[in-house]
Design goal:
Two copies of one chain form a homodimer. The longest helix of chain A has 17 residues, at 309-325. Chain A is globular and about 90 Å long. In chain A, strand 30, helix 16 and strand 31 (546-549) form a beta-alpha-beta unit. Chain A has 16 helices and 31 strands. The first copy, chain A, is α/β, with parallel strands linked by helices and 562 residues long. The mean pLDDT of chain A is 97. Chain A starts with a strand and ends in a 13-residue tail after the last strand. Helices cover 27% and strands 26% of the residues of chain A. The first copy, chain A, has four domains: 4-122 and 254-325, 3-Layer(bba) Sandwich (FAD/NAD(P)-binding domain), CATH 3.50.50; 137-251, FAD/NAD(P)-binding domain, CATH 3.50.50; 338-456, FAD/NAD(P)-binding domain, CATH 3.50.50; 461-555, Oxidized Rhodanese, domain 1 (3-Layer(aba) Sandwich), CATH 3.40.250. Chain A has a five-stranded parallel sheet with strand order 3-2-1-7-19. In chain A, strands 9-16-10-11-12 form a five-stranded parallel sheet, with helices on one face. Chain A has a five-stranded antiparallel sheet with strand order 22-23-26-25-24, sandwiched between helices. Chains A and B meet through helix 3, helix 8, strand 22, strand 23 and helix 10 of A and helix 3, helix 8, strand 22, strand 23 and helix 10 of B.
Chain lengths: 562, 562
């Protein structure tokens, strides 16, 4: 008798599982149960459809050559049965079958499996507040949501909207609706956006976003206010009211595990299905993949929820292989790489933030690099990277990068380095593709490694913008030197009591510096390269307590005088 | 007495050496001797200046904030003495001094050193043919060359030019002159352009370039023809004549080692100065860095000449440190990463080509991936990658990538992987930054690893376009299946005797296939993903000799029927 594979879920992981399983064996019966009508949706593309980056909705559900990935396509091209609009209502492990129900016809039935794969995904969290049921309160999680918001864009009637939640989807939605000509306010309950970043990196993003839209942090939604069943505004937790005709909720997702739970499959402490590296659950005949699972963070060794489309595909590839030929393909885990476009900026992270590294007890060194991605003459754009590495062995632990420059390449480099266990020393002489249209002669990433090595070896001491600001607020006695030229100083400056002494004059003007060689001196420039050179020089002249403002003025996240 | 460092050469490596040395010690005397007037030129930017990507010549020799890097700048900002227009004429090792001559004033002198660094760069090769001295025969190696060619662009008088040499500089020059409105012919002596690539990858580039300019391979210049001292044409080795008013010679460079050689410093078998990993020559007080050195290829362990600006900087950083604090900083070698923009395409390589891997006796597996860099709905563009890895352990040996897509990121990923000694299995579950504006859910690079793993594990057999073409030419009896749809077939097709059987119909039309299950079957589609699925399926149905045309129609480098 033919072997039977059942896959529950037809979004990202599900179709990948089924397709990989088919390639492993032409003669197994493979069935996907998909609750929704559509399947294999490019759900990460929803914000770009809503934002008008493209107009043809089918592009979200078709192959590169334009064939819609519907049940007919799956049957013809891959001999995979797709039962869409069909919900699995129960997993009966004892009998190795699932019970299902067609949501259109009401028809029910059962189907037997030899191996079952759960790819039920995740659902949007909703705040438990009044008015959540009003028309105009939505998420951006499904094709229907995308259709709804795209219609709003096309009609052009709505003028004011709020986005609740400053995570990846919230910010992508914010851009989409802003591009639709809607006046947006972003509301985030926590003190920072994009909580996977460090506060200071997130603050730079917040500052940038505020040039485009309104951003409110440390405030949640208390109530959705409505008239005749439609939203007219929201009341914030602090009592403020914001009029709006649309509210998009994007406060994270939770794994869909009720089917698994009811069947007695083990659920992890974070609420996701527990799987081993072969994506096998506590029942050896049942696998799971995608947003419904907990997976391992490879840097900390701890389990995490990592609901990303790329991981869903990789997990699905492993599960799809293993259900056919046994546990051969492993998915060891994630380093939680992520990236987000926001208008003309991008921001990304891979590995650990400083915050996470501290939480996990790592002893690490930090470097901040603010520099161009390409030469100025090739229209180079700014990147700000924070790199952290373990002190004892130099192993790279994490990188965050943001700016108008090519963030994607930087994060891809660091993700590969972290995945491979590379150290700062490995990256010092990185041999990356250099030509002026693509990179500086010393690529931004290699320069990060140089800075981190210089710091680790004690060639200079650094101070972050946040640390300096705290010192200023405390009224610490310091001598601050801006080492730029007068023209640059006229154009923009911090205005925190700094002395303007251009690097080229510093050797001649040492007499202007404090007599007390132990006094704290902070040097900086636009990106703190000249600031670094100044610090090294001053150290040579006997100043014992010189620090470089990391990332210079480019990474200053507080208000500037000018 | 103060320690004295002398650096010979002020282009890329020289200034880096001096700057790094200064940061290591404020109180050492550091002098750069530079033969030319300009120094610290962004020489890799010359083609983009000539091509009009920017107009301000000073951008090639100024800091990111616009300060010209002249002797005054070096003295003020870095306390480095630069003697420009001054040529070192002799190294007297016994007395630890150099003899120099000012090329403007004729003045001569000597200067003592404690440590000397040779960064004399490389010079352009010139063909030993008649007419080489004619006006209008030039290179693009110096600021003067750049000025000369930029003037030609600005004057707009010259209509026809030839570029001799299809390497990186030749192709960059070709683009620059084409953008200047000049009708160009590229002439390459060897059977392929960009000889660091495999022939088939280079052929794809040649095919693309031919849509923009004329390209002649397997033909060299026999003579430059002139009238009244100015070039009017060239005669090729096969006797053909091409009229032209300008000829740019770009047939490679050779290290400038005469000073070193005359001083009895050891020269390597490739003609470059021999250095250890600390960039130290056979004389322990003399270091060298940049294009004048031989360095180690980290994949083969053999020495190479690698005249790249990024490596010059990294070598200079190591040498600059070591001359001050002793041999601490190492530059272990190169994986010979390179990249080149050519109109709307880019092409890059890191590690070994197939050709080089064979030459060096590696037993390797190959994968070709033709796919988009981003989703179609985000304006994704094609990339074609050839990845090779060692058979025994999966260690990645090399990657070549080309196309209109984001080649730079792909090569950066592979360069980091090769530098780190990563294997195909490490890359299978790569955790790269994914969001639709940046990548497919399974990034192109990860898909390369998947293909290579599938092939290594015997899930399919591949055949390259070149291998297939050879079979066709030999008249081999094969059954070729194009698995695309009829619309796609109407639009473009190979026309090599293939049968059109769309993947979705293949299971139903197995009866059209050869009865002899051992007959060779080749499957393909646009990019050979459907071709791969077809091959896997046919294998399951008992066809024993099925191969996938690697890279599909996208990587077909021969003439197509349509």
């Amino acid at each position: 008798m033919k072997k039977k594979i059942i896959v529950i879920g037809g979004s990202a992981a599900g179709p990948k599982i089924a397709a990989r399983a088919r390639r492993m064996d032409e003669f197994t019966d493979i069935t996907i149960f998909q609750k929704a009508n559509d399947l294999s949706m490019a759900s990460c593309g929803y914000p770009y459809y809503v934002g008008g980056f493209f107009d043809d909705r089918n592009k979200l559900i078709c192959t590169p050559t334009g064939v819609i990935r519907d049940p007919g396509f799956y049957w013809n091209a891959k001999a995979i049965v797709v039962k869409n609009n069909t919900e699995v209502t129960r997993i009966v492990r004892g009998e190795k079958l699932v019970e299902f129900k067609n949501n259109l016809t009401g028809e029910t039935g059962t189907a037997e499996y030899d191996k079952l794969v759960i790819a039920t995904g995740a659902s949007a969290n909703m705040p438990p507040v009044k008015g959540i049921e009003l028309n105009g309160v939505t998420t951006l999680q499904s094709m229907q949501d995308a259709d709804y918001l795209r219609k709003i864009r096309d009609e052009g009637k709505i003028k004011k909207a709020v986005v609740i939640g400053g995570g990846l989807i919230g910010i992508e939605t914010l851009e989409a609706l802003h591009l639709a000509g809607i006046d947006i306010t972003l509301i985030e309950l926590l003190p920072q956006l994009l909580t996977f970043l460090d506060w200071d990196m997130a603050k730079l993003i917040e500052n940038y976003l505020k040039t485009k839209t309104n951003v409110i942090t440390k405030n949640g939604v208390g109530e959705f206010i409505g008239e005749k069943g439609h939203i007219t505004g929201i009341k914030l937790e602090n009592g403020d009211e914001l009029p709006c005709e649309l509210a998009v909720v994007a406060i994270g997702v939770r794994p869909n595990v009720s089917l698994a739970k009811e069947a007695g499959i083990e659920i992890g402490p974070l609420g996701g299905i527990k799987v081993n590296e072969f994506m096998q659950t506590s029942d050896p005949d049942i696998y799971a993949a995608g947003d419904c699972c907990e997976i391992r963070n490879l840097v900390t060794g701890k389990n995490v929820l990592a609901p990303y489309g790329d991981l869903a595909n990789l997990e699905g590839r492993a599960a799809g292989e293993n259900v056919i030929i046994g546990n051969r393909a492993s998915f060891p885990g994630t380093i939680q790489t992520g990236i987000c476009k926001l208008f003309d900026y991008s921001v990304g992270i891979t590995g650990l933030s400083e915050t996470k590294a501290k939480e996990n007890g790592f002893d690490f060194e930090r470097a901040v690099n603010a520099s161009m991605d390409k030469p100025g003459f090739m229209d180079g754009k700014l990147l700000i990277t924070k790199l952290i590495a373990e002190k004892s062995n130099g192993r790279i632990l994490g990188a965050q990068c943001l700016g108008p420059g090519d963030v994607s390449k930087q994060i891809a480099i660091w993700a590969t380095a972290i995945k491979g266990g590379l150290t700062v020393d490995d990256m010092i002489n990185g041999d990356l593709p250099y030509a002026p249209p693509f990179s500086l002669a010393i690529d931004h990433s290699i320069a990060c490694a140089h800075i981190l090595q210089n710091k680790t070896r004690g060639f200079f001491q650094g101070i972050s913008a946040l640390e300096l600001k705290e010192k200023i607020n405390r009224g610490d006695d310091m001598f601050l030197i801006d080492t730029r030229g007068p023209d640059e100083y006229e154009e923009t400056r911090l205005g925190i009591g700094e002395h303007l002494i251009p690097l080229g004059l510093l050797r001649k003007r040492l007499n202007e510096l404090p007599e007390d060689k132990d006094k704290e001196i902070i040097t900086f420039c636009k990106i703190s390269l000249r600031g670094y050179e100044a610090a090294v020089m001053l150290k040579a002249f006997g100043f014992n307590n010189v620090k470089v403002l990391e990332g210079g003025i480019a990474a200053w996240l507080f208000v500037k005088e000018k």
